[in-house]
Specification:
It is a single chain. The chain has 339 residues and is α+β, with helices and mostly antiparallel strands. The protein contains 12 helices and 9 strands. The strands form 2 sheets. Strands 1-4-5-9-8-7-6 form a 7-stranded mixed sheet, sandwiched between helices. The protein has a two-stranded antiparallel ribbon with strand order 2-3. The longest helix has 38 residues. The protein is rod-shaped, with a radius of gyration of 45 Å. It starts with a helix and ends with a helix. The protein binds phenylalanine. Phenylalanine binds next to β8 and β9.
Length: 339
């Protein structure tokens, strides 16, 4: 019997060493300690032992039982910790691993240049004004000295919401809104979208952008207009840029001028880009018409002002060598990613 018990113990040792799961451990427990288990069978035969043998074998049997029970518990614990280890390993987070970078958007070329323009004017003490794109006929035309039958309406044909409301054809409407709400001294630029019923081609779009400028103060002259525009152009295009003022007509400025800048390609000699002119037309400008000032309640015996309006697309195209305006609106990333 003693041999049997020792053999059971050996068997238990081996089985436990080889057990790889909780289920296997349970099988071992049942095979050895269960009701029909090996050890139980041995103990059942105890009755046949002599009175001297019984306690000796009994003690040995108990030892074997507690050896097996202890072994099972120990194995259970080591299996559990191995399982936990494996799980931790599997779920480990490598915080040093490179992440997936979100794709960053970029500034649109129109905004790149607009920000530059804003910086230049803010540097000269201007602030930024805004007005609605859906505008009253009054602000877009009437208050700018363009009554209903004025021919200037033909060149700025726009989209009518109704008889009194249009999509603004020029940012000059913001001049009126600013003068109605602010007392001189006034120094603002008003960038924004404008609309005209033009067909789309390489240099036209029914939607484009202008930047309006307005200064009203005591003693403002054409000299201030020239100085301001010159500072602006030289900052934008470099110190070699030369401005040229040509007499022109706008209903809301008097006198009026169109302003050209020396060709950025040939520097004024004349080339293909400037069509031999040496200069490129850039903007409209002039001294604010007294009628316009007075309509806004500004005393023209005290104050005078100048205004200008430039097309943002034109500056951007020149600046970035873009030869087709449509590229600016098509949202083709292959184009936009170049800037
Ligand atoms: N609003 C004019 C245009 O769109 C430009 C302009 C602005 C002219 C301000 C003079 C003064 O053509």
């Amino acid at each position: 019997m003693k041999e049997q018990l020792l053999a059971t113990k050996e068997k238990a040792k081996e089985a436990l060493a080889g057990a790889g799961s909780l289920a296997e451990l349970e099988d071992i427990r049942i095979a050895l300690l269960g009701k029909k288990g090996e050890l139980t069978a041995v103990l059942r035969g105890m009755g046949a032992l002599s009175a001297e043998e019984r306690p000796v074998i009994g003690q040995l049997a108990n030892e074997v039982r507690s050896f097996i029970e202890g072994g099972i518990e120990e194995k259970k614990a080591s299996l559990a910790s191995a399982a936990r280890e494996a799980k931790l390993k599997e779920e480990r987070l490598d915080v040093t691993m490179k992440g997936r970078m979100p794709v960053l958007g970029k500034k649109h070329p129109l905004n790149i240049v607009l920000d530059e323009v804003k910086d230049i004017f803010v540097g000269m003490g201007f602030s930024i004004a805004e007005g609605p794109e859906v505008e009253y006929d009054y602000y877009n035309f009437e208050a700018l000295n363009i009554p209903k039958d004025h021919p200037a309406r033909d060149t700025q044909d726009t989209f009518y919401i109704n008889d009194n409301v249009v999509l603004r054809s020029q940012t000059s409407s913001v001049q009126i809104r600013v003068m109605e709400n602010q007392k001189p001294p006034i120094r603002v630029i008003a960038p924004g979208r404008v609309y005209r019923s033009d067909a789309v081609d390489a240099t036209h779009s029914p939607v484009f952008h202008q930047i309006e400028g307005l200064v009203v103060d005591k003693g403002i002259t054409m000299g201030d207009l020239k100085g301001t525009l010159e500072t602006f152009m030289k900052t934008l295009y470099g110190n070699d840029a030369v401005l040229r003022f040509r007499p022109h007509h706008f209903p809301f400025t008097e006198p009026s001028a169109e302003v050209d800048v020396s060709c950025f390609v040939c520097g004024g000699k004349g080339c293909r880009v400037c069509k031999g002119e040496g200069f490129i037309e850039l903007l409209g400008a002039g001294m604010v018409h007294p009628k316009v000032l007075e309509r806004c309640g500004i005393d023209t015996s005290v104050y005078s002002g100048f205004a200008f309006g430039l097309g943002l697309e034109r500056i951007v195209m020149r600046r970035m060598n873009i030869d087709d305006m449509r590229l600016l609106y098509e949202n083709d990333l292959r184009f936009l990613n170049q800037f």
